[in-house]
Amino acid sequence: MKYNRILLKLSGEALMGSKSYGIDPKRIKEYAEEIKLLHSKGVEIAIVIGGGNIFRGMAGSNDGVDRVQADYMGMLATVMNGLALQSALENVDVPTRLQTALKIEAIAEPYIKRKAMRHLEKKRIVIFSAGTGNPFFTTDSAAVLRAIEIDADVILKGTRVDGIYTEDPEKNKEAIKFDTLSFEEVLKRGLKVMDTTAFTLSQENKLPIIVFDMNTKGNLSKVVNGENIGTHVN
Fold first, then answer.
1. Residue range of the domain that includes 118
2. R_g of the chain, CA atoms, integer Å
3. Rounded CA gap, 113 and 136, in Å?
4. pLDDT of residue 224
5. Backbone φ, ψ for residue 44 (5° rounding)
6. Average pLDDT per run of 10 along the chain, which is 234 residues long?
7. Which of 5, 10, 80, 231 would staple 44 via disulfide (CB 3.0–4.6 Å)?
8. Could you tell me which residues are beta bridge partners of residue 129?
9. Pairing of strands 154-159, 5-10
10. 78 and 130 in contact (C-beta within 8 Å)?
11. CA 214 – CA 8 distance, rounded (Å)
12. What is the number of domains present in the chain?
């Protein structure tokens, strides 16, 4: 395998599958099987998952909820998704630990870097939820922050499209896909890979990002094996 320790970033919307809200049991089971296959090859895996399938802080604040309160609601949505993914992984016999940036000891461990590192060394998958624990920061920022803290080799951003394009390929069929990009090119072209805070943090720490289609069976293992899948930003 090209990468020994990865941080997989999944959006909350990815868990919806064919649904318009919530979690699609079929989709989360498929993800668990993909992650299990990679885990069986000895790769150390940490996961950050969003909460947009349940509640998105920015949308909530636009609907009149205080922005800080809305962001905390979004963090709790990521905990719910983390619990669901943990259950799906344990159902296929993959040892998993859920850590949260907010203290919710009844259902998850508080985030402690040393404990997270130890879990990874023992080949347990670690799911980081509740973002950074602070309002005004996205789960993209949390993903980059945790990846740096655990010394991950790469951030894998699993989406429903197969990479980064000049435009949204779901809206413009003429959009052109990039195989590789530098951090500078992404900024110059104004491409939306992650929010600015997350992207800058990744750039400053020379942490590569690979954007790929998580919904195609086998892609996760192929990316980690170094195959030319998705778009590589470095």
1. 5-233
2. 17
3. 22
4. 95
5. -85, 125
6. 94 86 93 96 96 77 82 95 97 98 95 98 97 95 97 94 88 89 92 90 96 93 93 94
7. 5
8. 100
9. parallel
10. yes
11. 10
12. 1
What would the DSSP string read from start to end of the chain? ---SEEEEEE-GGGGGTTSSSS--HHHHHHHHHHHHHHHTTT-EEEEEE--TTT--HHHHHHTTS-HHHHHHHHHHHHHHHHHHHHHHHHHTT--EEEEESS--TTTSEEP-HHHHHHHHHTT-EEEEESTTSSTT--HHHHHHHHHHHTT-SEEEEEESSSSEESS-TTT-TT--EESEE-HHHHHHHT--SS-HHHHHHHHHTT--EEEEETTSTTHHHHHHTT-S-SEEE-
At 219, the amino acid letter reads N
| Nearest to 3, CA basis, from 200, 220, 163 | 220
Position 35, amino acid: I
Predicted local distance difference test score (pLDDT) of residue 225 = 93
CA 18 to chain centre: 19
CA 58 – CA 90 distance, rounded (Å): 32
Exposed e or buried b for every residue in 107-138, given b needs 16+ CB within 10 A? ebbebeeeebbebbeeebbbbbbbbbbebebb
- CATH code, domain with 144: 3.40.1160.10
